[in-house]
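[step 3/7] fold_predict: job queued, chain A
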Amino acid sequence: MKIDNDINPVIETKALTKYYGKARGIENVNIRINKGEIFGFIGPNGAGKSTTIRTLLGLIFPSSGRGEIFGLDIVKNKGEIRNRIGYMPSDVNYYPALTCRELLAYSARFCRNADPGRIGELAACFELDLARKFSDLSMGNKKKVTIIQAFLHSPELLILDEPTTGLDPLMQKRFFDLLHKENKKGTTVFFSSHTLSEVQKLCERVAIIREGTIIKTEDVKDLRARQIKKVRIDFRDRMDGRIETLDGVKVPQHNGNTLSFFFSGDINLLIRQLSKCNVENMEIMEPDLEEIFLHYYEKGEEAS
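[step 4/7] structure written:
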């Protein structure tokens, strides 16, 4: 969907901070999400993603700073805000003795614009047995209940906290198809995840959070352009020290005749340099997100 940058943002935070006693939750979080945007919020587990979301929803109160959704204060106007959003929590806990149909019908009564007819439609899409008790469901099927609950009232904003956890690849695809369909109708999406590939496929912009602080906000196309790779090279004899000086080589590590590093430069330059070396073996892999955060986004790399 075309993003509207000319009106007030759907979500805006200014120095939003939450402490649990002396323990850090989030610090000085600044986010601006425009109408019609699919915005990614990414970081390793424990980075502060869920704390940010729960603070935005008024489930917990900020220690300092402020936040607005639809131009409404997240503390003073949380009731009005909740009527206009759909929320998927990362952890699924509903009344265990109720059936899926009973749970969803109960949820629908809390939403002004809920369409009970969508329960059957979405249950068929995600192959959910509405007659089963919630306590009897697998994690994946419990997740399907939260998907249907979040979409029942055609919300203006979807806030999704690790929404694909427990879903098999087919259900993930159907979920992403549904997100795109709703986005084309005008729904703004705030998508929190620790899976980099999901965010790259789905989102236009992404905020990267680490240890409770936003370290970068950027366009996903720029994130893709860097194409961070994990490289391991086994040399037959001594290493070529010139490899480490190439643009894009980050965090080189030595182990005997093996050199490992992250690489985000021109792969052709690396190949040309390696052609001058006596290489025994080489691996180029996709790093997982945890590795990127632990090694690539080190202090001093955040603004690079």
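[step 5/7] annotate
Residues 299-304 have pLDDT under 50 and may be disordered.
The two ends are 30 Å apart (CA to CA).
exit 0
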